[in-house]
Amino acid sequence: MTEITNIYLTRHASTDLNAQKIMQGLIDSELSEAGRREAAFLAADLADMKLDAIYTSDLKRAAATAEIIAAAQKGEVPVIHDQRLREINSGKFQGRTYDDCRELDPYNWELAALDPLSYHPPGGEPGLHIQQRMQALLDEVVETYPGGNILLVSHGFSIKALTYPYVKENYADLATTRKPGQVYQVLDNTALLHFRHDPEEGFILVSRDAP
User: Fold this and answer.
1) Mean pLDDT of the region 57-80
2) Which of 1, 152, 183, 188 is most open to solvent, judged by the fewest CB atoms within 10 Å of its CB?
3) What average pLDDT does the segment 48-55 reach?
4) For the domain that residue 37 is a member of, what is the CATH number?
């Protein structure tokens, strides 16, 4: 019997730096009060899902989101911290406003939205490396929990890089509709993305909540 594994990804709840439109990268920011409310709403929505495990980035904003979700589950759920789910090291962009990042390196700022695997923030981590570490974790999860329901809590660009190979055609559309300099996220804070893994068909992106 084929065992279908369902993997759900969510972007951490909001922080004050999100509200201020500041590139966080590896800055270890806490959830804002609004973010804690967002996480609680998502936790209530997932309370009956019967998650087998929650994997989370070890950065505070993601780990706190994961703990709020785990606390709302009907039974005990392991929360596993994994650095592969971390946000991109944004290099010289880190701690700057979006407008400042665009002025500093407009070419790479555009690539972050249009071709995240070619994106390489000045002094930071290549987008392709993000996709590879995220995909490696997906592969590991389906081996560890075949037939399970797993939630991953990660970050905006990391999720963007992971999904790019699955939704390239959407990025072509984005190139003609997106305003220059506009930030594009695959997921809003606490929105869900759903992958299904079939041992015969591989990974299939079932649904993606986009802004």
Assistant:
1) 97
2) 1
3) 95
4) 3.40.50.1240
DSSP, residue by residue, the chain: ----EEEEEEEPPP-HHHHTTB--TT--PPPPHHHHHHHHHHHHHHTTS--SEEEE-SSHHHHHHHHHHHHTSSS---EEE-GGGSPP--GGGTTSBHHHHHHH-HHHHHHHHH-TTT---TTS--HHHHHHHHHHHHHHHHHHSTT-EEEEEE-HHHHHHHHGGG-HHHHHHHHHHSPTT----SS-TT-EEEEEEETTTEEEEEEE---
Domain that holds residue 33: 5-89+126-168+186-208
Domain-embedded: residue 29? yes
Residue 73 domain-assigned (yes or no):
yes
Within a domain: 148 = yes
pLDDT, tens digit, for every residue of 150-203?
Answer: 999 999 999 989 988 887 655 556 555 555 555 666 688 999 999 899 988 898
In a domain, 174, yes or no: no
What confidence score (pLDDT) does residue 160 get? 87
Write the pLDDT tens digit of every residue in 17-29.
999 999 999 999 9
**Residues identified as active-site:** 12, 87
